Amino acid sequence: MKELFYSIFEVLSQLGYIGIALGLMIEVIPSEIVLSYGGYLVSTGTIHFWGALAAGVIGGTIAQLFLYWIGLYGGRPFLDKYGKFLLIKKSHLDASEQWFQKYGTGVIFTARFVPVIRHAISIPAGISRMPLSTFSIYTLAAMIPWTVLFLLLGIQLGDHWREIKEYAKPVLLPIIFLAFTSVVIYFLYKQKK
């Protein structure tokens, strides 16, 4: 699997903006790595920041739309049977469904910043037939800060962009805390209403 990962990454890394978008669309390579490499390319002057941002937001949004449509048209039976081929674990799907049922549509934005949940949350949105326009707005709104964050980290790291996981941890922990707190506040608001 590691060889496949590096082979795909090698091809994508030569495609610039298209490589960033495709890397996020196929989701074989974690978005943090794709975007930090995009930041590295920006730091070398190979590509421009705004183009990398557009490619990241478009690619990430399309990936989530694909998962939404799988949930909408395939449902849970399809995912239980074929999810492993899409790198979707049953435990991730279970957790995302629980979050979606508990916190409602607002979780689509905040869950994008929570590991494990962030990729699979689109599926229960599709299964529950959340309006596509609402889903798209929340997803797009979450993809912008996520993309900016990892592009900026990649720019700062420069040649050390491969070490993104270590450098991102101190930055991601407050973001995860903020996302979780936002979900709780949203849930309390919904309960009171």
Automatic annotation (TrEMBL):
Transmembrane helix as UniProt keyword: yes
Pfam family, one: VTT_dom
Family: Belongs to the DedA family.
InterPro entries: DedA_domain, VTT_dom
Keywords linked to the UniProt accession: Membrane, Transmembrane, Transmembrane helix
A cellular-component GO term for this protein: plasma membrane
TM regions (residue ranges): 7-29, 49-71, 135-155, 167-189
Organism: Cytobacillus praedii
Ranges of residues in domain VTT: 29-155
Lineage: Bacteria, Bacillati, Bacillota, Bacilli, Bacillales
Protein name per its UniProtKB record: DedA family protein
Chloroplast found in the keyword field: no
